[in-house]
Amino acid sequence: MPDIVAHQKLIGLTAPSGAGKSSIAKQVLDAFPSMRLSVSVTTRSPRAYERHGKEYYFVSKPEFDRLITEDALLEYEEVYPGYYYGTPLSELTDHDSPLLLDIDVKGASHVRTSYGGFFIFISPPSIDTLEQRLLNRGTESTEMLQTRLKRAKIELSYANRFDAIVVNHSLDQAVKKTISLIKSYLKDA
Ligand code: 5GP
């Protein structure tokens, strides 16, 4: 295990696409001033509102491959066919501050098993709600929407592999529950 990982408190939020994970992550960061968000690298294209270095580091596949070859990633996954996402080791720098990972179920499961940390699965109330949220968000093409929904069914089967499940019936309630779980974890960690 890279030494730096042994010292950093890792908090993971994992969920199917459209479950509300990113909205929850934003409010969690506001609630814990010492916490930082780990910015991942991805080969997918930026959405209109996304900026390189803020939501993600947007890279080409050859650049992503170079990061793998150089052992620069803590973990990575091909989350959707042809689209890669990874956690750069360079995000793990400050031993004292907890690091928040927004990460898919496979990556989360891998990091939790290999390095530990506290991982919360954010669940949508149902697949129908998830579809509606993805449609309302309007960020995906019809094809990608179908890909994401198909994968969501598999992702839901991972729910019990983590430390806690938060069902996102309402954003406010889900945020409160997530913050309270993280507070308890950090108190004992
Ligand atoms: P999106 O394209 O909606 O931003 O993200 C798609 C999925 O990739 C989400 O489940 C998100 O949590 C996950 N993801 C984002 N960054 C990483 C990462 O560094 N590693 C892994 N394994 N998954 C990630």
Give the neighbour order of strands across the main sheet.
Answer: 2-7-1-8-9
- Give the strand tally: 9
In the predicted model, the low-confidence regions spanning at least 5 consecutive residues are none
Number of helices: 7
Could you give a short account of the major beta sheet?
5 strands, parallel
Structural Rg: 16 Å
Indicate the mean pLDDT.
93
Shape: globular
Percent helix range: 40-55%
- Please report the distance between the alpha carbons of the first and last residues: 19 Å
Which ligands occur here?
A: guanosine-5'-monophosphate
Helix-strand pattern: HEHEEEHEEEHEHHEH
Name the beta content range.
15-25%
Structural class: alpha/beta
Secondary structure: elements and pairs:
Blueprint: H1 3-7, E1 10-14, H2 21-31, E2 36-37, E3 40-42, E4 56-58, H3 61-69, E5 73-80, E6 83-88, E7 99-102, H4 105-115, E8 118-123, H5 127-137, H6 142-156, E9 164-167, H7 171-188
Parallel strand pairs: 1-7, 1-8, 2-7, 3-4, 8-9
Antiparallel strand pairs: 3-6, 5-6
Helix pairs in contact: 2-7, 5-6
The structure holds guanosine-5'-monophosphate.
Characteristic terms for this protein:
189 residues; 9 strands; alpha/beta; 5-stranded parallel β-sheet; binds guanosine-5'-monophosphate
Describe this structure in words.
With 189 residues, the chain is α/β, with parallel strands linked by helices. Helices cover 42% and strands 22% of the residues. The protein has a five-stranded parallel sheet with strand order 2-7-1-8-9, with helices on both faces. A four-stranded mixed sheet has the order 4-3-6-5. Helix 2 (21-31) packs across helix 7 and helix 5 runs antiparallel to helix 6. The mean pLDDT is 93. Residues 17, 40, 44, 75, 77, 79, 85-87, 102-104, 107 line the site of guanosine-5'-monophosphate (5GP).
